[in-house]
Amino acid sequence: MLLLGVRPCTLSLWQKVTLAEITFHHSNLRLPVSIERLLVRLIVTPRMHGIHHSAVCEETDSNWSSRLTVWDWLHGTLRIDVPQQAIEIGVPAYRDPKDLKLPALMAMPFRTQRPTWRVPGTGCGRQG
Question: Checking CA distances to 3, which of 19, 36, 99, 102 falls within 20 to 30 Å?
């Protein structure tokens, strides 16, 4: 670990904490609103991070933090005003279930990608 400049036990601890936080904010855990309002001031919660996975571009471009919400506060990317039930998860260009089967996903890196935020067959969305 000389190359990284950290002790192996320190790196191991950081990896474990990172895995725990990612598992937490990607979970389907529904926290009581009162607890959510307190926690989201400091840490990323499942509801907050779920907005980041929205099919709506403006919502996807928010809530980038993975541990502390301070980074989204500082960069103006914090968004907590989207009701959970209103969020449609996914990438607009890949909404067809056949695009999400294992063979298609495995082949995806080797194919030309669609404009990500453009819904196929419509003029909706943006390039990128």
Answer: 19
